[in-house]
Each structure stands twice: as C-alpha cells, then as structure tokens.
Design goal:
Radius of gyration: 23 Å
CATH class of the largest domain: Alpha Beta
Largest sheet: 6 strands, mixed
Shape: globular
Number of strands: 23
Bound molecules: nicotinamide-adenine-dinucleotide
Low-confidence stretches: none
C-alpha cells in the first residue's frame, strides 16, 4: 500500500510515523498517511515563509489567473474528487458530486474575482492629512480543517488565503486526509509556485499543536469543535484568528408556516451530510398547535430515508466518520432515552448490505418531547439525531432558541413579517434563514457567535482574517 505524503515546498515529504485512513462505510484501510510533528511543521512553515515575499508581490491579476486555473482543474476532476471524498469521509456521492466538490471550484472563482475589486478607504481629515487604507497580506497562515466536508472546507480557507497574497500551511483532519492531498497536487499543477501552499498531515495534538503555536504563523483559520478552538486560542498566543466552531442550531416552525416546505427543509437540515453538519437544524422547535402532526409526519418521512452505501447515488444517509464518533452518537441516543425524551424513530443500527458490515452505521433517530435543558438538546451530537421541542408563544420560541451555548445558524418558518423582523433580531446566531434551509451564497458573512466562534469569512469579511489593514496618513 502506498503512503500519502506531506507536501512541503512543492515536494512530497515522508515521516517516520504513519497512520491509516479508513473507509467509514466498510472499515477497510484506504491509505497509509505520513504523520507529521514539529519537524515537518517547521519545514512547512519555513517553506511558506520563504515563498511569501514573491507571492505577495505577484500582481493581483496573475494571482487571480492562477486561482481560476485551480478552480478549472477542480471542476475538471469533480467525479474523481467526489468519489475520493465519499470513500474517505462517508458523505454520500449525491452530495459530494453535485454540491460539495463543485462548490470547491466556486470558492476559487469567487475569490479570484473578489481580489480584483478589493480596495481600501480614502478620506481627507481636518488635520490636513490624507488617509488611506492598505489591505496587506499577513504572511504565513495556518489552515486547520475538520473531517465533515473536508474538501469544501479546505478550499474555503485556501482560496481567500492565497488570493490575498498569503502563503499557507494546511493541516487536514487525520480522519479525512485524501482530498486535501489532491488539492495540494492540483495547486502545483495550476502553476502556483512551490511553497505557497503546504500540507502537513498528522494528529491535532502533534502536527496541529506544533502548527498553531509556531511563532512564524501569523494567523489561524480554524474550523472544528468548540473544545479544540478553545485549546488553540490558549496554545497559539497572539495571532489573528478565525474560529468556525460547533453548533446546535434552532429550527423554529410556527403554525402559520408553509407546512410542507418547512417539513422538507427540517428533514434536509438534520439528515443531509449524515447529520455531520455544523449548521444542522438539530433542535426542531415546533408550535404546539401543529406539533403532534409534525412529529408524526417528520418521523414517517425520516423512516423512508435510505441509509447505506454512500457511493450509491440513491443513498441519503451514509456512515458516521469513525468508530469513535459512532460511539459518541450512539451514547447520546442512549442518553436521550435515559433523560426521558420520547424516541419516535430509530435508536438502533440500520440494516446494510454485507459489504458494509464493518461500517459505522447509525439509524436516523428522532426524539420528541425534548426539554431544551436535556443534554441531548444542549450538546452538539453531530449525527442524524434531531430533538423535537414544542413551544407555545413567540417569546418562548426565542427563549428556547437562545438557550444554548452555541450561536451558529438558525432557521425560522413563519408567514408573519413582523415576527420575522423581531425574531431575526432576537435570535443569537451568526446566520438566520427565514422560510429556507441553509442556502449559501459566497457573499454572505459565514460564522457564529457565542461558543460557535469568532470572525466571519466570505466576501470582504475575509479581509479581517487574511489581511492586515494598514492606515497611511500623509500630511499636506
Ligand atoms: P476537531 O476540533 O476534533 O478537529 C478539527 C481539526 O483540528 C482537525 O484537523 C484536528 O486534527 C485539529 N486539532 C485537534 N486538536 C488540535 C490542537 N490541539 N491544535 C491544533 N489542531 C488541532 O473537530 P472535528 O471532529 O474534526 O470536526 C467536527 C466539528 O467541527 C464539529 O464541532 C462541527 O460543528 C465543527 N465544524 C464547524 C464548522 C463551521 O464552519 N462552524 C464547519 C464544519 C465543522
């Protein structure tokens, strides 16, 4: 079996230690991967630092051209990348092929365009100074990604990072290293100079810690759990941060909502991506007058979702990423029952084909009559396990929606305009979708409040993470 290497300074580099990456649907070993630590991180940061001056000085038009070429290469490799992603992380092929990998190409097209319109502010002041703002690249940036939508997240970080003239050292999750490796290869194929993008594989406590605490790393764009985000803030010292962390997003449905559309969207927001989605609508908060009907319809529809081989285009729900994550999700399913929530669907293992016997399978599981103070309503389960919670009044809906440490996304279903305006203000979240599932437009500021993180990425919001604003004041 070949070993997947790091990519440092444009060259493949190995490590004495390795780890295996497994197919979560079968348990088979997909590849052996070099496991980096301090030495590999030092080499990657040195390569990124050396490449920085020339890359930062590369004309914007040329950087944009190279990023567009990278986007084209990704677009040309969608079937291959989608299959690799599905094998490595268990996201179903219908999603990886149609949505997640094509979106990765869009990330590069988008930021290639954006940098050509980037400009600072200019103003004259009473003191006889002309002020202007320069947005300058920060230098070497650490890009740390989780396993749930690995290629999309990796490119969502790499595109702005490189577009603004920074160089990067990426550490992908040890559970899903394969498509990031292809990304590093395609970066070179696109003609982006060696050292501008470097990839070190490894565990969080080894490669990850070494990277975030490295003194030559100037900024960290991190996506992952709130626990790890807190830990990184402590180890990293004074650096620029973007922290895209966990969520427990409320999905609030009033009795005047378009019932069928709300039902469809509620199902999509918790069961797509196997429920392993930071913006999952995992607390479905339903007005009491339609609550029992909704519980029955939701459970009936969820029971029909096909669980199985993620490479089959008809599959809706694939496996959990790892044995450890499977155990975490099933422990929450037990806990929900211990806490007294009503189990209306699932709770066990789905039947799967013989070749999938070694996979990490969880049945779509629905809990109703959940009290928002229960652990299953407070913790991020990150699996196909929604909590259905009844409410009576608008005030109660807001209180329940906000009664969580998290504040990433939120969903609101009602035809009452005044209520939309009041609740959009009152809900503590970085994003509110009204009468809609999560529909991403790359111009939106993406990010969360409270324990869901700091900073926003997308559009000009990405300047704050990947650029330094320098003011120049000229006396006249
Ligand atoms: P995780 O925090 O365990 O790991 C994320 C990454 O951090 C991995 O690459 C890991 O190796 C690395 N890491 C771990 N410890 C580290 C350390 N001490 N120093 C540096 N790096 C370290 O998260 P996960 O289980 O891979 O991903 C799931 C989590 O990610 C969920 O909480 C989910 O909500 C969150 N997530 C958030 C968003 C968002 O945009 N807000 C998007 C996707 C996933």
């Amino acid at each position: 079996m070949s070993t997947i290497q790091h990519l440092i300074g444009g060259r493949e580099v190995g490590s004495a230690e390795t780890f295996d990456t497994l197919n979560p649907a079968t348990g088979e070993v997909l590849a052996r991967v070099a496991s980096g630590g301090q030495d590999e991180v030092n080499a990657a940061v040195a390569a990124a630092k050396a490449a920085f001056p020339a890359w930062a000085a590369t004309p914007v038009k040329e950087r944009a051209r190279l990023l567009r070429r990278l986007g084209d290469l990704i677009a040309a490799h969608v079937p291959e990348l989608a299959e690799l992603e599905t094998r490595d992380c268990g996201q179903v092929i219908g999603q990886t092929k149609k949505a997640l990998i094509p979106r990765a190409a869009d990330n590069f097209y988008y930021f290639a365009e954006l940098i050509q319109h980037q400009h600072g502010e200019t103003y004259d002041s009473d003191t006889g100074h002309l002020n202007y703002t320069l947005w300058q690249p920060v230098g070497v940036v650490a890009l740390i990604s989780p396993w749930n939508v690995p290629f999309m997240t990796a490119t969502w970080k790499t595109a702005p990072c490189l577009a603004f003239g920074n160089t990067a050292v990426m550490k992908m999750s040890e559970l899903s290293p394969l498509t990031a490796t292809r990304l590093a290869q395609l970066v070179l194929e696109a003609g982006i100079p060696p050292g501008v993008f470097n990839l070190v594989h490894g565990y969080g406590h080894t490669a990850g810690e070494a990277l975030v605490s490295h003194p030559d790393v100037r900024a960290i764009s991190f996506t992952g759990s709130t626990v790890t985000g807190n830990r990184i803030v402590k180890s990293a010292g004074l650096k620029k941060f973007s922290m895209e962390l966990g969520g427990k997003s409320p999905f609030v449905i009033f009795d005047d909502a378009d019932y069928e559309r709300a039902l469809d969207a509620a199902l999509f927001m918790i069961f797509s991506n196997n429920g392993e989605r930071c913006t999952a609508g995992s607390r479905i908060i339903v007005q009491h007058s339609i609550y029992e009907r909704f519980v029955a319809d939701f459970a009936a529809r969820a029971a029909k979702l096909t669980v199985g081989d993620p490479l089959d285009p008809n599959t809706i729900i694939g496996p959990m990423i790892s044995r450890g994550h499977y155990e975490k999700v099933t422990r929450y399913i037990e806990l929900g029952q211990e806490e007294g929530a009503r189990l209306v669907l699932g709770g066990g293992k789905p039947e799967v084909a013989a070749h999938l016997a070694g996979g990490n399978w969880v049945q779509p599981t629905v809990f109703a009559d959940v009290d928002n103070r229960m652990t299953i309503a407070q913790d991020e389960i990150f699996g196909p396990v929604p909590c259905l919670i009844p409410f009576k009044t608008e005030e109660e809906a807001v209180r329940i929606a906000n009664d969580t440490p998290y504040g990433l996304s939120s969903y609101l279903w009602t035809e009452n305009t005044g209520r939309v305006l009041r609740m959009a203000k009152a809900i503590e979240a970085g994003m509110t979708f009204v009468n809609s599932q999560n529909v991403r437009d790359l111009r939106q500021p993406f990010g969360g409040t409270k324990a869901s993180g700091t900073g926003r990425e997308g559009n000009h919001y990405s300047y704050e993470v990947f650029c330094e604003a320098k003011n120049v004041a000229i006396s006249y």
